[in-house]
Amino acid sequence: MIIVFPKQIVRYLFTIAVVLDGLSFLVQLPRYALGYALPQKIVDFFNIGGEYNPQAWYSSLLLVLCSLLLLLIAAEERRLFSNTTGYWYGLSFVFFYLASDEMLLLHERASELLSPHIHAVGIFRYAWVVIAIPICLILGVVFLKFLLNLPQRIRTLFFVSAGLYLGGALILEMIEGAVASLYGEGSIFDFLLVAIEEFLEKLGTILFIYALLTHIRLSIKSIQIEIR
């Protein structure tokens, strides 16, 4: 038997996020404060908005953990013949896609394809948001009834975590586009906005993990896994 303590797990996950983001600030500080940049390999390795580095791996790992927890809940709901099983499986798929996107940069590829066909400046400089906004609205409509029927505490945690994640991933991304159009990418303003965006995404994901673990503790109590 494995006993899980949601608050303790979240505390560890949050600490790792703070350490990673703190390291990113430290390696960028000489550039913006002193006008002296550290070797590019070091900057790229700790870059909070970087690719294929510990920051991206950790963000992807958090999203995979969400997907797995949702999958476990879905399997248990299916065993109990619950009519919410499909919603849990659906959310698991959504988070698996988000984890894949974090590692494979699918949204950036979408921007490259869309940019030549739209006026990609200002808040739509990163053109993938043009697709993301309607997708988020559609998912919101599809899952709204399911979310409203969750226990109040879990429902509140779900909405707050979604607000944090989308506030970082979507709203701040649009603000970054506007700022980058004015000051160019790589400015101090761009760096700070990216740092806030990534931290909000991690914070929202960690809070969602806490919500899922709390849901398991309060509503399901335990999950049995049989290997036959």
Describe this structure in words.
There is one protein chain. With 228 residues, the chain is mostly helical. The protein has one domain (6-220). The chain is 78% helix and 0% strand. The chain contains 8 helices and no strands. It starts with 5 loop residues before the first helix and ends in an 8-residue tail after the last helix. The mean pLDDT is 89.
Write the SSE topology.
Elements: H1 6-34, H2 40-46, H3 54-79, H4 85-104, H5 106-114, H6 128-148, H7 152-183, H8 188-220
Helix pairs in contact: 1-3, 1-8, 3-4, 3-8, 6-7, 7-8
**Total beta strands:** 0
Strand content: under 5%
Q: What is the H-and-E element order?
A: HHHHHHHH
Low-confidence stretches: none
Mean pLDDT: 89
The structural class is mainly alpha
Largest sheet: none
Question: Which percent range fits the helix content?
Answer: over 70%
Could you write a compact summary of the structure shown?
By secondary structure, the chain is mostly helical. It is built from eight helices and no strands. It has one domain.
Task: Provide the descriptors you would attach to this structure in a database record.
8 helices; mainly alpha; 228 residues; single chain
